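ok posting inputs for the S-adenosylmethionine job
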Amino acid sequence: MAKHRSPKARGVKRRVRRPSRTPAREKREAQARPAGPGNRGERPRRPPAAPVPDPAWVIRCAPGLARTVRAELRHADVLRHTDRVDLLWQRNHDLLFLPAASGDPAAAELRTVEEIDRCIIYGRYKMSRDQLDRLAGHLRHTTARWRLVATAEGTHFNRHDLRRFLARELEQRGLRMDERAPHTVFAFCVDAAYYVVVPETAADAMPGRSARVAEREASLPPSVAAAMAFLGKPGAGDTVLDPVCGSGTLLAEAAAYAPGAALVGRDIDAGAVAAARDNLTGYDADLGEADARELDLADGRASLVLANLPFGKQFGDVDDNPDLYRALLTEMLRTAAPRGWRAVLLAADPDLVAEAAADLPLRLAKRVPIRVRGEAATITVLNRR
Ligand SMILES: C[S@@+](CC[C@H](N)C(=O)[O-])C[C@H]1O[C@@H](n2cnc3c(N)ncnc32)[C@H](O)[C@@H]1O
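and the output
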Protein backbone atom coordinates (compact mmCIF):
# COMPACT_ATOMS: atom_id res chain seq x y z
CA MET A 1 0.00 0.00 0.00
CA ALA A 2 2.83 2.37 0.84
CA LYS A 3 4.34 4.68 -1.74
CA HIS A 4 8.13 4.81 -1.88
CA ARG A 5 9.62 8.12 -0.77
CA SER A 6 12.96 9.53 -1.91
CA PRO A 7 15.97 9.52 0.49
CA LYS A 8 15.68 13.31 0.62
CA ALA A 9 12.07 13.09 1.69
CA ARG A 10 13.08 10.61 4.39
CA GLY A 11 15.67 13.00 5.83
CA VAL A 12 18.67 10.75 5.02
CA LYS A 13 20.76 13.68 3.76
CA ARG A 14 20.44 15.52 7.05
CA ARG A 15 21.45 12.44 9.04
CA VAL A 16 24.67 11.99 7.00
CA ARG A 17 25.78 15.61 7.46
CA ARG A 18 25.15 15.71 11.20
CA PRO A 19 26.26 12.47 12.83
CA SER A 20 25.73 13.67 16.42
CA ARG A 21 22.28 12.36 17.51
CA THR A 22 20.39 13.74 20.45
CA PRO A 23 17.48 11.64 21.80
CA ALA A 24 15.04 14.30 20.57
CA ARG A 25 16.57 14.22 17.11
CA GLU A 26 16.52 10.42 17.06
CA LYS A 27 12.82 10.51 17.89
CA ARG A 28 12.12 13.06 15.17
CA GLU A 29 13.98 11.00 12.61
CA ALA A 30 12.27 7.80 13.60
CA GLN A 31 8.91 9.51 13.16
CA ALA A 32 9.90 10.86 9.75
CA ARG A 33 11.06 7.44 8.52
CA PRO A 34 8.41 5.69 6.43
CA ALA A 35 6.86 2.52 7.77
CA GLY A 36 6.77 0.82 4.38
CA PRO A 37 8.22 -2.60 3.61
CA GLY A 38 11.65 -1.16 2.66
CA ASN A 39 12.42 -0.22 6.25
CA ARG A 40 11.64 -3.46 8.02
CA GLY A 41 14.31 -4.51 10.47
CA GLU A 42 15.60 -0.95 11.12
CA ARG A 43 13.01 -0.18 13.80
CA PRO A 44 14.49 1.36 16.95
CA ARG A 45 13.31 0.08 20.32
CA ARG A 46 10.39 2.10 21.65
CA PRO A 47 8.45 2.21 24.85
CA PRO A 48 5.09 0.33 24.68
CA ALA A 49 2.58 2.30 22.63
CA ALA A 50 -0.13 4.12 24.57
CA PRO A 51 -3.67 3.47 23.29
CA VAL A 52 -4.42 7.08 22.33
CA PRO A 53 -6.93 7.24 19.47
CA ASP A 54 -6.97 9.94 16.80
CA PRO A 55 -9.81 12.49 16.91
CA ALA A 56 -11.10 11.03 13.62
CA TRP A 57 -14.22 8.86 13.26
CA VAL A 58 -15.98 6.67 10.74
CA ILE A 59 -19.76 6.32 10.87
CA ARG A 60 -21.94 3.75 9.10
CA CYS A 61 -25.61 4.16 8.30
CA ALA A 62 -28.29 2.55 6.15
CA PRO A 63 -27.72 3.04 2.40
CA GLY A 64 -28.96 6.47 1.34
CA LEU A 65 -28.90 8.10 4.76
CA ALA A 66 -25.40 9.65 4.72
CA ARG A 67 -26.64 13.21 4.24
CA THR A 68 -29.33 12.81 6.90
CA VAL A 69 -26.69 11.51 9.33
CA ARG A 70 -24.46 14.48 8.45
CA ALA A 71 -27.38 16.79 9.27
CA GLU A 72 -27.85 15.04 12.61
CA LEU A 73 -24.10 15.33 13.36
CA ARG A 74 -24.37 19.08 12.77
CA HIS A 75 -27.58 19.32 14.77
CA ALA A 76 -25.86 17.53 17.69
CA ASP A 77 -22.82 19.89 17.43
CA VAL A 78 -20.51 16.99 16.67
CA LEU A 79 -19.67 18.70 13.36
CA ARG A 80 -19.48 22.39 12.60
CA HIS A 81 -20.51 23.45 9.11
CA THR A 82 -16.85 24.05 8.28
CA ASP A 83 -15.71 20.60 9.51
CA ARG A 84 -14.74 18.25 6.75
CA VAL A 85 -16.77 15.11 6.18
CA ASP A 86 -16.29 12.68 3.29
CA LEU A 87 -19.20 10.50 2.22
CA LEU A 88 -18.94 7.10 0.60
CA TRP A 89 -21.91 5.22 -0.80
CA GLN A 90 -21.64 1.44 -0.67
CA ARG A 91 -24.16 -1.29 -1.44
CA ASN A 92 -24.86 -2.32 2.14
CA HIS A 93 -24.28 0.94 3.92
CA ASP A 94 -23.14 4.54 3.56
CA LEU A 95 -19.96 5.63 5.28
CA LEU A 96 -19.10 9.03 6.69
CA PHE A 97 -15.45 9.86 7.32
CA LEU A 98 -14.79 12.58 9.86
CA PRO A 99 -11.06 13.43 9.92
CA ALA A 100 -11.42 16.05 12.66
CA ALA A 101 -14.84 16.25 14.28
CA SER A 102 -15.45 19.12 16.70
CA GLY A 103 -17.30 16.86 19.12
CA ASP A 104 -17.30 13.21 20.15
CA PRO A 105 -19.88 11.22 18.12
CA ALA A 106 -19.84 8.35 20.63
CA ALA A 107 -20.89 10.72 23.41
CA ALA A 108 -23.71 12.29 21.36
CA GLU A 109 -27.03 10.52 20.99
CA LEU A 110 -26.98 9.92 17.24
CA ARG A 111 -30.06 7.89 16.42
CA THR A 112 -29.75 7.82 12.62
CA VAL A 113 -26.45 5.89 12.65
CA GLU A 114 -25.92 2.13 12.48
CA GLU A 115 -22.44 2.08 13.97
CA ILE A 116 -19.83 4.56 15.18
CA ASP A 117 -16.21 3.48 14.68
CA ARG A 118 -13.43 5.07 16.70
CA CYS A 119 -10.34 5.88 14.71
CA ILE A 120 -7.10 4.60 16.18
CA ILE A 121 -4.90 6.02 13.47
CA TYR A 122 -5.69 8.48 10.72
CA GLY A 123 -3.53 10.22 8.15
CA ARG A 124 -2.80 10.77 4.50
CA TYR A 125 -0.48 8.90 2.12
CA LYS A 126 1.63 6.85 4.53
CA MET A 127 1.21 5.26 7.93
CA SER A 128 4.12 6.15 10.15
CA ARG A 129 5.91 3.59 12.27
CA ASP A 130 4.77 5.49 15.31
CA GLN A 131 1.14 5.12 14.23
CA LEU A 132 1.56 1.40 13.59
CA ASP A 133 3.06 1.00 17.06
CA ARG A 134 0.12 2.94 18.48
CA LEU A 135 -2.38 0.79 16.56
CA ALA A 136 -0.76 -2.43 17.79
CA GLY A 137 -0.68 -1.06 21.33
CA HIS A 138 -4.37 -0.21 21.20
CA LEU A 139 -5.43 -3.56 19.75
CA ARG A 140 -3.30 -5.50 22.22
CA HIS A 141 -4.68 -3.43 25.06
CA THR A 142 -8.31 -4.17 24.05
CA THR A 143 -8.32 -7.86 23.13
CA ALA A 144 -5.87 -10.40 21.76
CA ARG A 145 -7.87 -11.64 18.75
CA TRP A 146 -8.74 -9.46 15.78
CA ARG A 147 -10.06 -9.91 12.28
CA LEU A 148 -8.83 -7.37 9.74
CA VAL A 149 -11.09 -6.01 6.99
CA ALA A 150 -9.66 -3.56 4.45
CA THR A 151 -11.54 -1.30 2.05
CA ALA A 152 -9.90 1.04 -0.46
CA GLU A 153 -11.59 3.63 -2.68
CA GLY A 154 -9.75 5.69 -5.26
CA THR A 155 -6.45 5.05 -6.99
CA HIS A 156 -3.96 5.64 -4.19
CA PHE A 157 -4.30 2.37 -2.26
CA ASN A 158 -5.03 -1.19 -3.21
CA ARG A 159 -7.28 -3.14 -0.82
CA HIS A 160 -5.26 -6.37 -0.96
CA ASP A 161 -1.91 -4.61 -0.57
CA LEU A 162 -3.33 -2.60 2.30
CA ARG A 163 -4.55 -5.72 4.06
CA ARG A 164 -1.27 -7.59 3.55
CA PHE A 165 0.79 -4.59 4.68
CA LEU A 166 -1.22 -4.04 7.86
CA ALA A 167 -1.39 -7.75 8.75
CA ARG A 168 2.38 -8.03 8.38
CA GLU A 169 3.12 -4.86 10.38
CA LEU A 170 0.80 -5.97 13.16
CA GLU A 171 2.28 -9.45 13.17
CA GLN A 172 5.74 -7.94 13.58
CA ARG A 173 4.33 -6.22 16.65
CA GLY A 174 3.07 -9.51 18.08
CA LEU A 175 -0.54 -9.46 16.78
CA ARG A 176 -1.61 -12.21 14.40
CA MET A 177 -4.85 -11.43 12.54
CA ASP A 178 -7.43 -14.19 12.71
CA GLU A 179 -10.30 -14.57 10.19
CA ARG A 180 -12.49 -16.21 12.85
CA ALA A 181 -11.87 -13.64 15.59
CA PRO A 182 -15.03 -12.07 17.02
CA HIS A 183 -13.67 -8.49 16.93
CA THR A 184 -12.94 -6.59 13.74
CA VAL A 185 -10.46 -3.87 12.98
CA PHE A 186 -11.38 -1.98 9.78
CA ALA A 187 -8.89 -0.22 7.56
CA PHE A 188 -10.44 2.28 5.15
CA CYS A 189 -8.55 4.17 2.52
CA VAL A 190 -10.40 6.92 0.71
CA ASP A 191 -8.22 8.50 -1.97
CA ALA A 192 -5.01 9.40 -0.11
CA ALA A 193 -6.51 9.26 3.41
CA TYR A 194 -6.41 6.22 5.67
CA TYR A 195 -8.52 5.47 8.73
CA VAL A 196 -7.94 2.40 10.90
CA VAL A 197 -10.92 2.02 13.20
CA VAL A 198 -12.63 -0.24 15.71
CA PRO A 199 -16.39 -0.29 16.41
CA GLU A 200 -17.35 1.83 19.40
CA THR A 201 -21.17 2.14 19.50
CA ALA A 202 -23.94 0.30 17.67
CA ALA A 203 -27.48 1.45 16.85
CA ASP A 204 -29.12 -0.81 19.44
CA ALA A 205 -27.12 0.89 22.22
CA MET A 206 -29.00 4.18 21.71
CA PRO A 207 -31.10 5.26 24.70
CA GLY A 208 -34.61 3.83 24.75
CA ARG A 209 -33.98 1.07 22.21
CA SER A 210 -33.66 -1.64 24.83
CA ALA A 211 -37.34 -1.00 25.65
CA ARG A 212 -38.19 -2.55 22.30
CA VAL A 213 -39.39 -6.07 23.04
CA ALA A 214 -41.73 -7.01 20.16
CA GLU A 215 -40.57 -7.45 16.55
CA ARG A 216 -42.76 -7.88 13.48
CA GLU A 217 -41.74 -8.97 10.02
CA ALA A 218 -42.04 -5.53 8.44
CA SER A 219 -40.61 -3.55 11.36
CA LEU A 220 -38.36 -0.69 10.31
CA PRO A 221 -34.74 -0.74 11.47
CA PRO A 222 -34.70 1.83 14.31
CA SER A 223 -31.99 3.93 12.65
CA VAL A 224 -34.17 4.33 9.52
CA ALA A 225 -37.19 5.16 11.69
CA ALA A 226 -34.98 7.70 13.48
CA ALA A 227 -33.97 9.27 10.16
CA MET A 228 -37.64 9.71 9.24
CA ALA A 229 -38.40 11.20 12.66
CA PHE A 230 -35.36 13.51 12.39
CA LEU A 231 -36.53 14.74 8.96
CA GLY A 232 -39.93 15.53 10.49
CA LYS A 233 -38.28 17.78 13.14
CA PRO A 234 -40.53 16.70 16.02
CA GLY A 235 -40.94 19.09 18.93
CA ALA A 236 -42.50 18.88 22.39
CA GLY A 237 -45.67 20.62 21.15
CA ASP A 238 -46.32 18.13 18.34
CA THR A 239 -48.95 15.44 18.13
CA VAL A 240 -47.25 12.69 16.14
CA LEU A 241 -49.51 10.28 14.27
CA ASP A 242 -48.52 6.99 12.67
CA PRO A 243 -51.73 5.70 11.03
CA VAL A 244 -50.07 2.37 10.02
CA CYS A 245 -47.94 2.03 13.13
CA GLY A 246 -47.04 -1.68 13.07
CA SER A 247 -44.79 -2.32 16.08
CA GLY A 248 -44.49 1.41 16.90
CA THR A 249 -40.87 1.98 15.79
CA LEU A 250 -41.52 5.43 14.31
CA LEU A 251 -43.41 6.65 17.37
CA ALA A 252 -40.64 5.45 19.70
CA GLU A 253 -37.99 7.31 17.68
CA ALA A 254 -40.13 10.48 17.52
CA ALA A 255 -40.50 10.30 21.31
CA ALA A 256 -36.72 10.01 21.72
CA TYR A 257 -36.21 13.26 19.78
CA ALA A 258 -39.17 15.05 21.36
CA PRO A 259 -39.98 13.54 24.78
CA GLY A 260 -42.94 15.91 25.32
CA ALA A 261 -44.72 15.10 22.04
CA ALA A 262 -48.10 13.36 22.10
CA LEU A 263 -48.04 9.97 20.34
CA VAL A 264 -50.94 8.49 18.39
CA GLY A 265 -50.69 5.12 16.63
CA ARG A 266 -53.27 3.16 14.67
CA ASP A 267 -53.09 -0.11 12.74
CA ILE A 268 -55.69 -2.31 11.12
CA ASP A 269 -54.07 -5.42 12.61
CA ALA A 270 -54.70 -6.20 16.30
CA GLY A 271 -51.35 -8.07 16.51
CA ALA A 272 -49.50 -4.94 15.36
CA VAL A 273 -51.27 -2.79 17.94
CA ALA A 274 -50.35 -5.31 20.68
CA ALA A 275 -46.70 -5.18 19.56
CA ALA A 276 -46.75 -1.37 19.57
CA ARG A 277 -48.19 -1.39 23.10
CA ASP A 278 -45.40 -3.70 24.26
CA ASN A 279 -42.74 -1.51 22.66
CA LEU A 280 -44.17 1.76 23.94
CA THR A 281 -44.94 0.79 27.56
CA GLY A 282 -42.88 3.68 28.91
CA TYR A 283 -44.95 6.27 26.98
CA ASP A 284 -48.41 7.72 27.33
CA ALA A 285 -49.25 6.74 23.74
CA ASP A 286 -52.78 6.63 22.32
CA LEU A 287 -52.79 3.32 20.39
CA GLY A 288 -55.65 1.44 18.79
CA GLU A 289 -57.05 -0.64 15.99
CA ALA A 290 -58.33 1.36 13.02
CA ASP A 291 -58.33 1.59 9.25
CA ALA A 292 -55.99 4.43 8.26
CA ARG A 293 -58.45 5.40 5.49
CA GLU A 294 -61.07 6.19 8.13
CA LEU A 295 -59.41 7.13 11.40
CA ASP A 296 -61.27 7.53 14.70
CA LEU A 297 -59.53 10.88 15.23
CA ALA A 298 -60.86 14.44 15.31
CA ASP A 299 -60.18 16.85 12.44
CA GLY A 300 -56.89 18.75 12.84
CA ARG A 301 -55.50 16.56 15.62
CA ALA A 302 -52.04 15.65 14.30
CA SER A 303 -49.22 18.09 13.50
CA LEU A 304 -46.71 15.49 12.25
CA VAL A 305 -47.39 12.22 10.43
CA LEU A 306 -44.71 9.52 10.29
CA ALA A 307 -45.66 6.45 8.31
CA ASN A 308 -44.07 3.43 6.70
CA LEU A 309 -46.77 2.85 4.08
CA PRO A 310 -47.68 -0.75 3.17
CA PHE A 311 -45.49 -1.61 0.15
CA GLY A 312 -48.07 -4.14 -1.08
CA LYS A 313 -45.83 -7.15 -0.38
CA GLN A 314 -46.29 -8.36 3.22
CA PHE A 315 -49.39 -6.16 3.57
CA GLY A 316 -51.95 -5.54 0.82
CA ASP A 317 -51.45 -5.74 -2.93
CA VAL A 318 -49.23 -3.55 -5.15
CA ASP A 319 -52.16 -2.99 -7.55
CA ASP A 320 -54.22 -1.49 -4.74
CA ASN A 321 -51.51 0.98 -3.71
CA PRO A 322 -52.58 3.96 -5.92
CA ASP A 323 -56.08 3.97 -4.38
CA LEU A 324 -54.78 3.13 -0.91
CA TYR A 325 -52.19 5.96 -0.92
CA ARG A 326 -54.75 8.50 -2.16
CA ALA A 327 -57.15 7.47 0.60
CA LEU A 328 -54.39 7.54 3.25
CA LEU A 329 -53.21 11.04 2.24
CA THR A 330 -56.79 12.33 2.15
CA GLU A 331 -57.35 11.09 5.70
CA MET A 332 -54.00 12.48 6.86
CA LEU A 333 -55.08 15.89 5.57
CA ARG A 334 -58.43 15.66 7.39
CA THR A 335 -56.61 15.01 10.67
CA ALA A 336 -53.86 17.60 9.91
CA ALA A 337 -53.35 20.50 12.32
CA PRO A 338 -54.10 23.86 10.68
CA ARG A 339 -50.51 25.14 10.98
CA GLY A 340 -47.06 23.58 10.61
CA TRP A 341 -48.31 20.19 9.49
CA ARG A 342 -45.85 17.89 7.73
CA ALA A 343 -45.72 14.20 6.82
CA VAL A 344 -42.70 11.93 6.41
CA LEU A 345 -43.64 8.82 4.48
CA LEU A 346 -41.68 5.76 3.42
CA ALA A 347 -42.80 3.89 0.29
CA ALA A 348 -41.25 1.50 -2.20
CA ASP A 349 -42.69 3.54 -5.08
CA PRO A 350 -42.27 7.28 -4.42
CA ASP A 351 -44.09 8.18 -7.63
CA LEU A 352 -47.30 6.75 -6.23
CA VAL A 353 -46.95 9.05 -3.22
CA ALA A 354 -46.21 12.02 -5.53
CA GLU A 355 -49.21 11.19 -7.75
CA ALA A 356 -51.53 10.93 -4.76
CA ALA A 357 -50.13 14.19 -3.34
CA ALA A 358 -50.57 15.99 -6.68
CA ASP A 359 -54.35 15.54 -6.44
CA LEU A 360 -54.39 17.17 -2.99
CA PRO A 361 -53.23 20.53 -1.56
CA LEU A 362 -49.81 19.05 -0.75
CA ARG A 363 -46.27 20.05 -1.64
CA LEU A 364 -43.40 17.64 -2.05
CA ALA A 365 -40.62 19.12 0.14
CA LYS A 366 -37.93 16.42 0.01
CA ARG A 367 -37.10 12.95 -1.24
CA VAL A 368 -34.43 10.66 0.20
CA PRO A 369 -33.87 7.39 -1.71
CA ILE A 370 -32.67 4.65 0.64
CA ARG A 371 -32.41 0.87 0.92
CA VAL A 372 -34.21 -0.88 3.74
CA ARG A 373 -33.00 -4.44 4.36
CA GLY A 374 -31.79 -4.59 0.76
CA GLU A 375 -34.99 -3.18 -0.79
CA ALA A 376 -35.14 0.17 -2.56
CA ALA A 377 -37.49 2.67 -0.96
CA THR A 378 -37.85 6.45 -0.70
CA ILE A 379 -38.59 8.77 2.18
CA THR A 380 -40.87 11.59 1.04
CA VAL A 381 -41.47 14.73 3.11
CA LEU A 382 -44.75 16.50 2.38
CA ASN A 383 -46.04 19.92 3.49
CA ARG A 384 -49.36 21.56 2.94
CA ARG A 385 -49.55 23.85 -0.11
C1 LIG B 1 -44.81 -1.66 6.74
S1 LIG B 1 -45.80 -2.00 8.11
C2 LIG B 1 -45.36 -0.75 9.28
C3 LIG B 1 -44.18 -1.16 10.08
C4 LIG B 1 -43.86 -0.21 11.20
N1 LIG B 1 -43.37 1.05 10.72
C5 LIG B 1 -42.85 -0.87 12.13
O1 LIG B 1 -41.70 -0.45 12.21
O2 LIG B 1 -43.21 -1.85 12.76
C6 LIG B 1 -47.32 -1.50 7.53
C7 LIG B 1 -48.43 -1.64 8.54
O3 LIG B 1 -49.61 -1.12 7.93
C8 LIG B 1 -50.71 -1.83 8.44
N2 LIG B 1 -51.83 -1.57 7.53
C9 LIG B 1 -52.00 -2.02 6.26
N3 LIG B 1 -53.14 -1.50 5.76
C10 LIG B 1 -53.66 -0.69 6.71
C11 LIG B 1 -54.83 0.13 6.79
N4 LIG B 1 -55.68 0.24 5.78
N5 LIG B 1 -55.02 0.81 7.93
C12 LIG B 1 -54.18 0.72 8.99
N6 LIG B 1 -53.08 -0.05 8.96
C13 LIG B 1 -52.84 -0.75 7.84
C14 LIG B 1 -50.25 -3.26 8.51
O4 LIG B 1 -51.02 -4.00 9.42
C15 LIG B 1 -48.79 -3.06 8.96
O5 LIG B 1 -48.67 -3.20 10.35
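notes: Residues 76 and 108 are 7 Å apart (CA to CA). Residues 209-384 form a domain with the Rossmann fold fold (CATH 3.40.50.150).
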